[in-house]
Amino acid sequence: MIWRAFKCVRTGGDPVGLILVDTPLFVAWMSNDNRVGPERSYLLSQAVGRIALSQASWVEIAQELQEGRLRFPLSPQVWLELAVERSRAVVLPLTPSIVARSARWAATALDSVDRLIAASAVEHDADLATWNPALTGLPGVRYFF
Q: What is the CATH number of domain 2-136?
């Protein structure tokens, strides 16, 4: 995988890879939202340079902007560009294998975007950072928190 180029090493020699951040958590973190909390903020700040987003996050953000559930203090394009730059995030592409994996998971409490984000974490060998309880416990997903 191309994204293995982003692997680095923890003290002690254990490999550390990408941290794929779920959309609401990324937006809250980049907005300095108090709901993220000091521990999560610290952990994410320590992971800057290894942060990843799924292309599915752009779809989720567009939907929330259109529905009026999300507003930014700047134009959405400028805010998103600054957030990606500040977090040094890479945006992981959606692939046929991600789409196929996401379709195998039951839709119960997960919408299509959530399944695509979780499948992106698995297919790109990234840990998933989320505060969405519906995303916990999916087979094959490693959780950052």
A: 3.40.50.1010
